[in-house]
UniProtKB/TrEMBL annotation:
Family that this chain belongs to: Belongs to the SIL1 family.
Function of the molecule: Required for protein translocation and folding in the endoplasmic reticulum (ER). Functions as a nucleotide exchange factor for the ER lumenal chaperone HSPA5.
UniProt region (Disordered), positions on chain: 1-26, 58-79
Keywords, sorted A to Z: Endoplasmic reticulum, Glycoprotein, Protein transport, Signal, Translocation, Transport
Name recorded for this polypeptide: Nucleotide exchange factor SIL1
Domain Nucleotide exchange factor Fes1: 110-182
Pfam families linked: Fes1 (PF08609)
Gene source species: Polyodon spathula
Subcellular locations according to the entry: Endoplasmic reticulum lumen
SUPFAM superfamilies in the record: ARM repeat
InterPro entries: ARM-like, ARM-type_fold, Hsp70_NEF-Inhibitors, Nucleotide_exch_fac_Fes1
Biased segments, Acidic residues type: 12-26
Gene3D superfamilies: Leucine-rich Repeat Variant
């Protein structure tokens, strides 16, 4: 037991191997001669296969001796030079080690053919490098692509299809914030704002789409757009006779311009934006525009409430107080009540589409402060909400039966019940 407490490794060297580093020549190797007694191993000594080896943890010394069992010793010599001998001489061990080190594996014909077939599937590295260099010369940056597209759009020889194609490619690029800011630098923003005045509807439509994509979550582009007159041009598109696709894209651009930009929201209200949206809402055949207009107003209302309740950014910047002041001056709700929107939005509840109803319910709840008294006396609104409550109770119960406790219809039911609760 005393010995086992000191020894943590006690075993035998594997067959056909000895402890030799790769940079040692077997001819120069000093070979340990084991006996039946434990002997200390000196650094660099090779141990014959089949020897018993142990390590003393207290001293760090390694010791070795012959195997106790003759059967084990004979089994450990398989593959060595003289398997009939009870022991191996140093010369026999050196020859065996040298043979192992010099031996080489000769591939078969099948292996050679497989290797050639594999190499044939790949191109030489130098050839790939040349191709990559050639591609690098021809590769364009986003900045260069946009510059080329602007030239294509402005070319007097460009066809309508080519100009539309240029706008479509621009729209794809300006989704990236940095690329959209480069777009401003090279004059692309002013180009698309000017194109909103085009007499060709398809150019107006795609220009508005490019503008809306560049504006999305990009304060730099928002400021430049307001200064470049984009707000007035978008309102003009919405207020005049235009094809439906043009007005849809103009509303998209307007929403992108106003989002998180209280200065633009103030300008929108001063320029008669609510009147323009009201005309869109009342226009025949513009059901999709109604929903978009109400959604835009709802976003403005909720954005202001959230900002005034919770503040702007976690770490206020130098413009923090100025922006809060601007939000406090955006008086959307009072003007909505003055313009009669309290009576317009409930019309959307008659839609057969659940998404439209959802947007109407959320807008009605947001407009409740100035509209509550009117809604309490509106029997038609109460009847419509009661019908929706009955319908969504059944749909929500069906959702729960499938294990969906917080499903979409349950959420709509909650909105309806919130409205009914505020009318009591």
């Amino acid at each position: 037991q005393a010995r086992s407490a000191l020894m943590v490794v006690e075993g035998s060297e594997p067959d056909g191997e000895a402890q030799v580093s790769d940079d040692e020549d077997p001819e120069d190797l000093e070979v340990f001669q084991p006996t039946n007694q434990w002997q200390e191993l000196r650094p660099g000594q090779a141990v014959p296969a089949g020897s018993h080896v142990r390590l003393d943890l207290q001293t760090g010394k390694r010791e070795a001796k012959l195997q106790d069992s003759p059967g084990e010793e004979a089994g450990g010599r398989q593959g060595m030079v003289n398997t009939e001998s009870q022991t191996f001489t140093a010369q026999e061990l050196k020859k065996a080690l040298k043979h192992f080190k010099e031996a080489a594996v000769v591939p078969t014909d099948e292996e050679k053919e497989a290797a050639e077939a594999l190499r044939a599937q790949f191109r030489p590295l130098e050839e790939l490098k040349r191709d990559m260099e050639a591609l690098g010369v021809m590769m364009e940056t986003d900045f260069q692509i946009m510059s080329r597209l602007l030239q294509q759009f402005n070319s007097s020889a460009a066809s309508l299809e080519e100009r539309v194609s240029a706008l479509q490619e621009m729209e794809y690029l300006v989704h990236q914030v940095d690329t959209a800011q480069d777009f401003v630098t090279i004059g692309g923003l002013q180009l698309v704002i000017g194109t909103l005045n085009s007499s060709v509807p398809v150019l107006q439509e795609h220009a508005a789409l490019v503008l809306g994509s560049a504006l999305s979550s990009n304060p730099v582009v928002q400021v430049e757009s307001v200064e470049g007159g984009a707000l007035q041009k978008l309102l003009l598109l919405l207020a005049t006779e235009q094809p439906l696709p043009v007005k849809k894209k103009a509303l998209f651009a307007m929403a992108s311009l106003l989002r998180h930009f209280p200065f633009a929201q103030q300008r929108f209200l001063k320029l008669g934006g609510l009147q323009v949206l009201e005309a869109l809402f009342l226009s025949p055949g513009g059901a999709s525009l109604r929903v978009r207009a109400v959604t835009l107003l709802y976003d403005m209302i909720v954005e202001k409430e959230l900002i005034l309740q919770h503040g702007l950014d976690p770490v206020p910047d130098a413009s923090y107080e100025a922006r809060l002041q601007q939000y406090s001056q955006v008086s959307v709700l009072p003007q909505l009540a003055e313009r009669g929107w309290c009576g317009l939005v409930p019309e959307l509840l008659a839609s057969p589409e659940h998404d439209v109803r959802e947007k109407a319910l959320r807008a009605l709840l947001a407009m409740m402060p100035p509209c509550q008294e009117l809604y309490r006396g509106d029997r038609a609104l109460a009847a419509a909400l009661s019908l929706l409550q009955e319908q969504y109770q059944g749909l929500a119960e069906s959702e729960r039966s499938f294990g969906d406790e917080n499903g979409y219809f349950g959420e709509l039911l909650g909105l309806v019940e919130s409205m009914l609760g505020k009318l009591r």
